[in-house]
Every structure is written in structure tokens, then in C-alpha cells.
Batch of 4 targets.
Target 1
Amino acid sequence: MKRVFTRSESVGMTRDEGPLQCFRCDLGFWDACYTTKTNCNIGEKCYTGRGKAGDVLEVKLLGCVKAKECELVTNVELFSNTTIYMMTRHCCNTHFCNTGHTLPLNTLLSLSLTTITIIHLSSP
């Protein structure tokens, strides 16, 4: 019996394999993140990004990133070219390997608003 190889099999992927599925969190504080699920593009890995703003506020991001961006330290700018914190992305390459704790959206929004208020009140 003659076997016909599909394109995905010829590049080392089986029919059931595909892009990674990861958790996504656009902005979290400490270990509090409102997470959703996302599909990465081919060649991307799941990551957990951690940074610290003002030596007090721990920031966390989850998602997909190109493999060449793993383990790099990057500046994160939120407001008009002002560096808020440095971020390091730690990568992994299995489905949902960047697990994050989930919180209801209203809890995360309250925590975010409180943190931003404290930062603004404490600045000179």
C-alpha cells in the first residue's frame, strides 16, 4: 500500500499538531491576572512576562511571543515614551504551560484602579 504524505507531515508535524494554545493576560498585578485563552502563530511560544514598576508594583503579562524574543529584557512604555517597567519574558512550549491565576474582571479592575490611585498619590 502506497502512503501519501501531507504537507504537515513532511515538515515534522502530525495532523493533530498545530500552533500552541496559551493563556493570555494583557496586564496583571502581582499574580492577579484576568486570563483568556489564545492560539499562537506557528513559531511562537507561550510566555509569562514579569516586571516591576517603581520597585513596588509587580506586573505580569501572559501570551504568545516569537521564540527569538524569549528571555530578553525589554522596556515597557505605557504613557508617551515613558518607561514604566522592565519586562522579562520566560517562555515554554507546551499547551497552556504559562498558567496564570484567574480573577473575576471586576476584582481585577478594582485592584488596578486602587494601584494606579496609590501611585499617583505617592508621587511628588
Target 2
Amino acid sequence: MSKKTYFFLILILGSLTALGPFSIDMYLPGFPAIARDLNTTAAKVSQTLSGYFVGISLGQLLYGPLLDRFGRKKPLFIGLAVYILASAGCAVATSVEQLIVLRIIQAVGSCAATVASVAMVRDLFPVSESAKVFSLLLLVVGFSPMIAPTVGGYVTDAFGWHAVFMILTLMGVAIFVATALWLPDSYKPDKTLSLKPKPIIANFLEVLREPQFYTYSITGAIAFAGLFAYVAGSPIVFMEVFKIDGKVYGWIFAFLSVGFIGSGQVNTLMLRRFSSEQIVNVALICQAVIGLTFLAAALAGALTLTSTLVFLFLFLCCVGYTYPNAAALSLAPFTRNAGSASALMGAFQMGAGTLISIGISLFEEPSLIPMVAAMAGSATLALIVLVVGRRFITHKVEVQQGADAGVMH
């Protein structure tokens, strides 16, 4: 594969992966404006974020079998079309209830891009390169939290929150065109796979019987849920607790994203000396320690804006190491069922994020505690799942950059 081809594949796959996060991040600075315009509260508006997570969780399971049965591109095109129409609908919503429903539909469309991009990493690149590729995708995805909230803040201030969803609509159109023109067919449709409920469930169960999959996918999902806690809670924490306006919040969000993105890229260098398993172990221990310390400081009332930023930055750095390696280890055992495996992995991830975001939205009074407690709890629980789950792995597919995938006993 030439460097030019490699670059364009990473760029398109990264754009597909970034569509969902961009849809999550860009409208966050508009929470107060949406609440005022739709005559509701910021807590109620945050339910549109929870609705998005619900849509992605359900959509992951829908697209997994479709991607294996019909190939990658046809289901992807359908999902992108749904996303474009739903985004346009969000731009003209007249009530928070309408916005919640449209956000669920928008998410169902966008997760086709997410599931397809993850599955295509397994299609297009060898197992030994997968952790590196996931880290590179994280770089492209990283531009979302760096750019989206900042742009969203200025767009909302100048044109209103409706304009944000019009921009997302245009992004969907652009990605649809790029995918149609330049993304290759990476997987031949498997006509032996049935779309009836019983065979689909059996296929998912086959994936779930793999100890390496359920250990690292659940570990990664719960650890990554700490990021969703931050995304769901940060508009309230920064704009209502610390009284920061939408534009400044966008810049803070961009700054904190540097930790998440930067660690993801340092991960590619770390993989030259350490295995994905070793990196996950250390990063998750650090994530739990930072989260629990953060919670202790919050409960003691000792957090300032500066210390909050420091804790968030360090926590997100750990997530940047945990996610790509856990994802690579989860998918390493699969070839035939890669689409279903990536769908289940995404469903676990978004399911955990949904529960955390819904929990945070239930607290009407602005406070740091719900967000911080959710972050600390997710990291600690993920560490426990990893320790327990590893005991069941007897046939492990190792992932290490620069070496062929091998089996350890």
C-alpha cells in the first residue's frame, strides 16, 4: 500500500469515525441558547445528548449484521442518508421533545459510519497494524473536540443554534460524497449470513463467547464512559458552576482534548516497546487513581477552575491510551465476524456512555459531583473488570506494532 493510499484511507476512515463525535461536541456551547429558545432547562436539553447515545447504542447492533451481510458500503450509504435528513430536521425543531427524537434518529444514522470504519480497519490492515491505525484515527477524531465546540460557540453566538445542525447536515453530505468516490470496497458480502433474528443473535453470541473480546471490549467501554461523563457534565460544570460563556467553554474543551489526542498519538510510539496489553494495564490503573483523587477533592470542596482543568486533562490522557489498545485487543481474534464484533464493542461503549449521561442529566442542581463521581466510578469499575476478565483468557491473540499477530497460551 502506497503512502498516498494509506493517507487517504486514514483520512476517510477518520472522517467517518469523527462524524459521531462532531455531532456530539459541536452543539454543546448552545445548551443555554437551546434551553431559552425551546423554553426548557439545560438539564432537559442534556437529554438530547442522552438520546443521541441511545440511538448509537441501538444502531450499533443494527448495522453489525448488515455490514457483514451486504458488505460495508451499502449499509454505510443508507446510514449517512438517514444522518443527513435527521440533521436537517434538528435544525428546524420547535420543541425539546422533537429535538430528542431527531437526535436519536441522527445517531442511528451516524453510527453506521462508526461501525463501518472500525470494521474496515480490520478489513484493510493487518492485525499487527490495528492499534497503530486506531491511534491515527484518534488523531483525526481528535480534531472534533478541538474544533467543534469552539466553532459551535461562535456559530451559535452569530447565527443561533439552528445553524450548527445545518453545518452538520453539510458535513454529512461531504462525507457521503468522499466515501462514494474514494473509499474502496473492503469486504465481499457474505450471503450465507441470515438477517433473521435467531441467526443474528447466534452470531453475536459466538462473538461474546470469546473471552478476549468480552474482557477488553467491556473494559474499554466502561473506561471510555468516563469521557462521556465529561462530555455530558462539562457544559453544566463550566457554564453554570464556573459561569464561563459558550465561547470560552469551546476553547477549554479544545485545550482538554489535547490530552486525549496527544496521548493517543504517543501511544503509537509506546507500541514500539510495549504491547497493547501492557499499556492498557498501566493506563487504567492511572485513570482509576486520578479519578478517585479527583472525586475526593470534589467532595472536600477543594476544587478550583484550575485544579478541575488539571484533573480532567490527566484523566483524558489516560483514556487516550486505554481506548485504542482495548479496541485492538477486542477485535484481534476476528476476521469473519469483524462487523458484528465491532458493532457489539460499539454498543457496549455507547451503552455505558448512555447510562452515565442519563444519570448526570437527572441532577437538576448545577454541581461538580455527578460528573466527577461518574468518571471515578467508571475507571475503577473498568479496572476491576479487566483484572477479573483476564483470568478467563487462555488463548490470546497478541497485538503489537511491528510484529505479526501471534497466539500466546
Target 3
Amino acid sequence: MVQCGDPGISAIPVNVPANTFKLCLEKTRISRVPRAAFFNLSELRFLWLTYNSITSVHPSSFVNLKALRELRLDGNLLTAFPWEGLRDMPRLQTLVLHNNRLSSLAPQAALFLLNITYLDLSSNRLTILPAELLDLWFPLPGLQEGPVQRKILGLHDNPWLCDCEISLLVSLSMSLGSSVVLMDPLLMCSRSVGQSGTLLTQAELSRCMRPSVQPAATRVTSSVGSNVLLRCDASGYPTPTLTWIKTSAYPDCCQQDELQKSTQLPKMLDSFMQESPRVGVRWSIISLNGLSYSDAGEYRCQARNMAGLSEAPIKLKVMGATRLLRLPRKNSKPTLSRSLQRSRKPSKTPAAAANESRISAGLQPEGS
């Protein structure tokens, strides 16, 4: 274990032994953490950079810290944190950012917090939480992979804007069996109009609106091999997130052998794109290319926010290739032509008819 507390230190030391498992740099003049600052400390388990003067952390500061379990940066001057840098610490479980100057959390932070079980964001300047973080901490039923991990969150002493996201987070964390535990559940509203200093549980939350879903079409019919786009739009507050689920196969499709090969339904679909053009509105499109009979069925677009869940079904029917009309038989036209030709032959004169009779009887024709 290496501990440095000299107030004259202004940079990350480079002579730390390579076999160090715990490094503490506390109450120094260090103001930034540069790229690959701890590259040679591959055995490091605990990194404490507490109560310094750090204002910036490079996204690649933690390269090669694959064994790190705990990172503490509390008591610094950070206004932002490089969440993508957590990819270099796959075993990190404890992240402490208490007592900094963070005013916002990027939505993409949720992508890098999957393994964090202890997150302290208390005593910062946070006002709202992204919906993506709430989806991470309170996933929809069926989306939880593996056993439920308990998570401890420190969110107190922030000037929260009292909306239904943070309100429901507190409510869910207090529910029986919740996987999320708040260090201090008594959050205060310090930025809401007319609600300064009010406990969150007493705030009047009137902006919450359950999502409504509107599909572009409820029934779609297309042929085998074609491409289809299924779209739905949702509105609500907070801005809802959209999920696609295939719930059933098409019941009256003639290709029963193809349908029996389908995987078990319902199933979540992950090959879709979605955007939010403005607050409260989101659209989503799923692309089905080269349709087969197994693609037929009912698809549901689900919209979820902290106020509730709504969904809309879209039924997709896949048809076979269109058959060509049967062409006329080839011998019908020639037969008709021969009959017309026979009917159009000139009639024989009486004299010619008499000569044919004489010839057939073995007599000489007249005039020979």
C-alpha cells in the first residue's frame, strides 16, 4: 500500500512500485489525471484520489487497471467525469464521486455502470437523472439478466428538480424487494418553482404523463423476400423508451412447417433504431429484410417511462409469390386458322366437278 499526502505534490507520481495493490493520493495539489497515469500498476485494487484539486480526468487515465475494484475521487473539483473510461476497469464495483461539482449526467453513462454496485453522487450539483439510468437500475420484467444485484446509491445533497423520474426512483427504492438502496432517501427539491427546500416525497408532481403509442399501421401485408419497416411513435413525460417484442406467429399462414421452426415466443427484438426529436416524443423503427414466413406474426411496440407502460400491436402477414395467369394452349390458334382457311377456299365450278368425277371413274375428261 502506498499513501502520499504531501501538499506539495502537483502531479501523479511515476515511481510507485509495480506490485502496489492500494494507492492513496490525498490532500495534494494534483489538478489533473493524465492519459495512462497508472499504466504500470496492473495489480492495483484500490485507487483513492481524494480531496485534491482535480478538475479533469482523461478518458484513458485508467488504461490497464483491469483488477481495480474501488475508485474514489471524492472531494475534488470535477465538473464532468469520463464515463467511457470505466471500460478499462471491468471489475470496478465501487465508484465514489461525492462532493464534486457535477451538474449533469450523460445518458450514455448507463452503458458503463452495469457492474457498479456502489455509486456515490451525493453533494454535487445534479438536478435531473437521465431515463437511461433509471432503466438500468429498474429494468423491465424479463430484461434482467442473471441474478439481481443489490446497488447502493448516494443521491442526497443535490439540488434536484422534482419530477416524476426522481420521485419514482425514491418510491421504487423503498418498495419491498427493491434491488436499489438509497444511502439517504430524504432528497430535497431545491430547484423546483415554489418548492425550494421541500422534501421530495411531499412535492406536488403534476408533469408526469403515461406514454401513448401510435403505430404507423396496425396491419401490414407483404410478399416473401420483400423488405418491411415497422414504425411507431410515442409521447409522454418523461420521454418514453421504446421496445419491440414479437408476441405470436401468424395463425392462418399456410406455411405451418416454417412456423414450427420459429423460436419460442414472445421474444425481445434488438435490431431497431429510435430517436427523440424533442422532449416528450420518441419514434422507433424496426427493419425486416428478406421476409420469410417465420417473420409473420404480431409485433408489439412498448413505450415505458416512470409514469407507466403502454403498447400497440402491429400484425404482419407474409404472402407467397404471385402466380402468373395461364396462357392459352398453343394448338388452339392453329386449329382456328385451318378452319378459317378451309372456309375461305373458292368453290368449284360445275365443269370442274364433272371432270373430277370422270377421272375417278377412269374416263377421259371432257375436251381432251
Target 4
Amino acid sequence: MAPNLDRISSLLNLINEAARTLEAGYTTGDGYVPSLDETKAYPLDKQISAPEMKEAVQVLEGACAQLCATLARPNHTVVNALEPSCLRAALIFKIPDILQDQPAGMHVVDIGQRCGVDPSKLARILRLLCAKHCFREVHKDIFANNRLSVQLLASNPLHSLGLHMTGDTTAGATKLAETLADPYWGPSSVPVHSAWNKFTGQPMAMFDYWAQVSQNPDMHAHGERFGIGMIGWGTAVEAAVVVHAYPWNELGPGATVCDLGGGVGAMAIQLARAHPGLQLKLQDLPDRMVQAEKVVWPAECPEAMEQNRIEFRQIDFFIEPPIAGCDVYYLKNILHAFPTSQCLAILKGIRKSMKPGSRVLIHEYILQTADGSDQPADRQLTKAPSPLLSNYGEGRIRQYYLDVSLMVLVNSQERTLDEYIELGEKAGLRFMKVWEFGDMSGVEMCANEVYPVAARTK
């Protein structure tokens, strides 16, 4: 179905009309529209809303959400803004798969029979998701897939990501306040003092728990699901921007890139396809390396294996350095999962393996504060146009969601650029350049004593 441009214009008109109605309600007489920065109560705040203003707020919120859901990439919206408990039910019972061969829709009684769920309760769950523009209610109690819900098919990595986000993350978050209030755990940076630990009662860190395959075979599937989910996450946040925005071709033919902690190699696969001159080294825990070498790469990038452009080597990067002498050591979404002490262990291990001219590329979210203060030119990230918050507010909310999720799951954090630079300096690395890779960013570093020779100017 082709996009309905008239519908876009209609939504824009509704947004404009609703905003003007609300503006007029505030400015009638000698009134004014209060700034978000004000703390003093405004006269209208304590009054029952006039019917036209209440309606305008509802139209404004609904139209803005529908416009964003219509125009944003569907995986962006699915990852950002769905109610977790209802989304989890849809994922567990594979509702998108049930509806996949029913484009005209299926009655909820039939859906319930297929997945073994009471239809009246299932209808209420689906109706909430429809209000979020995920699925559509074609007629009363008849539901169909739409542009968002098809992102949740079991064959899509976003299905695995959704199970992780609505499972471990959401469950652990229920104990966040209690964890923060704990006089011992609250100020601790120890990984096992997380809200997830308090919820589950597990004495070990989440990733270590998943690694206990010999004691609990179910953990193998859990770890695999997380690895697949990270492929979905990378797609949703368009992490692949780094494949084209960073000058890999300037490294020269045969340059070696070590994707350290790269899981099954979602990013390395894209590098292999886009830059066949690179020699890639993928390093992670043993289970992920077996999954990568035996399952993922033969299906997704067999040509790299046939041409010996990829090497798989297991590693515990807390106790051993990565493959020596690589041109780039690439870490995507690694350091944010660990406290400062363990980040330093990883970076110091890399520093031992570097040769003259090697560099480290840390690919993470870089937290921006909302105060709008300027940074030195070489450290300044793009700021949003006024009057938006300088960090784009809701437009870049995902980095703050992820920051809190990391606190919940493993008691770690996203970091600011200054914090990454400080980490590097403590590990014997020097800051070279900050890159902007769409949603995420990159911090490029080199060994501090070779910086004057290897520094980039562009």
C-alpha cells in the first residue's frame, strides 16, 4: 500500500491546529504560555481543563505519535515505545507469525485457539498495542499485522531483542528503587549489586549466569537469543553507519580489524561485505565463536570464510589481550556493560597488543547533557536546533533508556565523551577524534606515545 501523503498533511494540520488551540487557551487575556523551565504554578494548572483544551491535548499527543510511527523506520518505533508486558505476550505467543498469512485479519477467537490464550483477554492486550500503532484492529475483535508488528516475526532478530528487553530488563527494573535504597548496594559499582540480581536472587552477574551452560543447558539458548537480539538492536539504531562513515579504506589493503567482543559478528559481517580488502578477526566467548563459525557466518557471509578474510578466536578479555598487531581494535557496545575497573582491564589488554599506528575505535552511545553548554571544537557533538533541548530530548531518548537498563541489568552505564577519554588515558591511550555515527558515536584513540605521528586531521 502506497503512503497516503494526504494523511501526512492531515496529521500536520491536526498538530498545528491543536497547538494553536492550546496556545490561545493559555494566552487569553494577559496570559502567556509558560516555559518548561518554570517551577511556579500557572493559573490554568489548578483548573479543570476547558473541553476544547482537553480535546486539543489528546489530538496533539495522538497525532504526534501517529506521525512519528508513520514516518520513522518501523524498527526504530518498535524498539522505542511499546508497553512491555503486552509486547512480551505478543512475542511469547508469536501473534505476528499467526497473523502473517491473514492480511485481512483474524478474529481474536481464532487467534486465541492458535496460541492457547483466552480470547477476551488477548483482545484487550492487542487493543492496547493497536493504540500504540503496533497491529491494527480491522473490525471489532478482528486483528491484523501492520508495518510495526511484522518487525516482531520470530524470524526477525527484533523478536529476540524484544524478549530480552521485556524479560530481564523489565523484570529487573521492578527492583530498581529497592536496589538504590539499599545502603550497601545503592552506591556500589560491583556488577552483582544490580537490580536484576536483587530480583532474581542470583549471586553472579547476569552475563556470567548465562555462561553457566554446563549447570543449566537452558542458558545456552538464552545466550544465543541475546546474541541474535543484538543484531536486531544494531539494525534498529542503524549502527551500520560506522561501516560507511569511518574511513576503513584509508587503512590500506590487507589492514586487520579486530572486532573484540563482537558476539556472532553482526558488525563484522557488514564490514566484510562493504570492505572486502579488510582482514577481520572476531573475538568473543567460546559459545559465541562456535555459533558464529558454525551457524551465522556460513549462512550470512560464506564468501569471507572461503576467502580466509575472517578468523574466529575465543577470548576472555579480562585475563588475556586480543590478537596482537591489528590496525584497528573495534569495540561496539562493550565498555558500557562493565564498571570502570573492568573497562580499564580491557583497554590495557588492547594497549599491550597494539603496534605503532594501531588505533582503538569505541562505538557506543555518548551521553549528552541537556544544559546546552559548548565543548571544545574537537569534542563538540551536534546540538539540536532551538527550542529543543540541546540533546534532542525525546528524539534521542534511547541512549538514556539504555543507560538505565544497564544500571538495572549489570550495574554499569553509558558514559560521556570526557569519561571515555579519561578511561583511555588511564589505559595508556590518547584521544584522537570523536565520530558521529547516527544514533551512536565513536571515540578514536591511539597509543599515547605515537599520537603525534598517527593523529588524524580530518
